[in-house]
Amino acid sequence: MFDTHTPALGTDAPTPAASPRHTVTIPGDHVMRACRELYEPAQADLVRWAFYRAFRMTWPECGEFYNLATDLLSRVWRGKPQADDLPRALAAFRAVRDATGKNARPHYAMTSMARRIAHALDVARALSDDGAGGFVFIGADPGFGKTTVCQAFAAENNHGRTCYVPNDRIGGVKHFVQTLARANNVNTCTGYTDMIGRVALCFDANRILIPDDAHKLVEGGDRKLPKLEYLLGLLDTTGCVIVLPAALDRFGAAMSESRYNDKQLWRRCKYHTIVNGWEDDVAPDGELKRSAEQVRQDDVAILWRFRYPRLDPGDKLAETLDSIAVHPHGGFGKVAAVLDDAGRFARKQKLPFTSKLARTVADEQLRDLEKLSKTISTPLWRR
């Protein structure tokens, strides 16, 4: 089941030359094996982070990024360092990692919903620190920031631990395993059984897997839920942490078809958060700090300041954006889309972006939403 094509660590088997024309060709399971069997935990953390930070680069780009010879990088990642290879590599990795993210612009607006999603991801990181595998479930309505926050978490807090993969309903378990293999630089052209084993070697109790849109893993009408069965097995085998960001209604509807898998999932779930709308902001002593309406309005204002910190939206634009946020066919994701449309319109027309221009676009979008609501409510549509 496990990969049998890798020479034993520390042997004198020749290291393949680093090709200048291709991306890094070292598979993730080889690197993880070296981290487990050869390096100390602190060393392994750096080596793993450096590999997953750069394996999409070409070899020359990788060497330039770390200011190291590509042959040295190849030896360290394969677990066959020579003499002073490891100290030099660790020093270079540490310098790049310490500089990464400093003075960088935040990846997303820190709304009330984003904070709750980020907290769930922080719990997942704490579980991985302790080597306590399990599921972390994030149930949220579309447009509330699941994908944005999870992608940012993988970029900001990776350190070689987080494996974020987009999800779809195409194919079965084999397609999903191939997605994980590509995310870990594992060859997908090997036999299926070999690929499953090598993907498993890429995970351990300190890694976090985030299959985005997890409701797509359990949809499709198959009561056996084979993709979820695979994740249950991966968790039990490797002890990793698996974060499941999902649309709550779709995930719940699919899981209701399989009582067995529903029990198996929640028995292994270490933390869950449900973000299905704005809630009152209540202090620990029970005192109401902000109503749900105020929280929503503040979130809209936070999103605007994140996108356009130097512009004042004005009361009328803020009111229109809030109306879009509560519209049954709008939502908070629609507010972000409206701001995107306004910026795109300004660039296309070569106009300066102003709050007046944004208000024009927002008003038009709100009118379209009202027309959509009237159309859908007609007897002809319902027929």
Helix and strand layout, with pairings?
Layout: H1 28-37, H2 41-54, H3 59-66, H4 70-78, H5 85-99, H6 112-130, E1 134-140, H7 146-156, E2 162-165, H8 173-183, H9 192-201, E3 208-211, H10 215-218, H11 226-238, E4 241-246, H12 248-255, H13 259-267, E5 269-275, E6 281-282, E7 288-290, H14 292-307, H15 314-326, H16 332-349, H17 355-376, H18 379-382
Parallel strand pairs: 1-4, 1-5, 2-3, 3-4
Antiparallel strand pairs: 6-7
Rg (C-alpha, Å): 24 Å
Main β-sheet, spatial strand arrangement: 2-3-4-1-5
The CATH class of the largest domain: Alpha Beta
Low-confidence stretches: 1-20
Query: Structural class, from helix and strand content?
Result: alpha/beta
Percent in strands: 5-15%
| Overall tally of structural domains | 3
H-E string: HHHHHHEHEHHEHHEHHEEEHHHHH
CATH superfamily membership of the largest domain: P-loop containing nucleotide triphosphate hydrolases
Topology, number of strands: 7
Instruction: Characterize the overall form.
Output: globular
The residue fraction in helices comes out at 55-70%
How does the major sheet shape up?
A: 5 strands, parallel
The CATH level-2 architecture of the largest domain is identified as 3-Layer(aba) Sandwich
Q: In CATH terms, what is the fold-level topology of the largest domain?
A: Rossmann fold
Characteristics:
383 residues; alpha/beta; Rossmann fold; 3 domains; five-stranded parallel beta sheet; two-stranded antiparallel ribbon; disordered N terminus
Write a concise synopsis of the structure shown.
Helix content is 56%, strand content 9%. With 383 residues, the protein is α/β, with parallel strands linked by helices.
